[in-house]
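Pasting as-is:
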Amino acid sequence: MTNSYTVTALDPAVALFHSLSDPTRLAIVARLAAGETRVRDLVEQTGLAQSTVSAHVGCLRECGLITGRTEGRQIFYVLARPELLDLLATAETLLAATGAKVALCPTYGTTTEEDR
């Protein structure tokens, strides 16, 4: 029996998790979990420049994670796949189960022992 978990076979999963690895993109996805919104609203909520938010929205759109609905001159963005909410909920469960270990990861963590 061969292992189907080769590096190449995992490329799509790597791309998915990379698309969600940026704090701004993750914040946008979290906001869209509550319903559709415009880039203008995301700019107000994040305090980031319109060009920055637009770039992140573009990334999420190109990945197929969000879609846009045009109404007049405005585009309202929404999550394209409800399964993304399941993934985020599972991530929250995993984070709760691992405690601070992920946040303390020396490579990707955002917290130090002193912060705890």
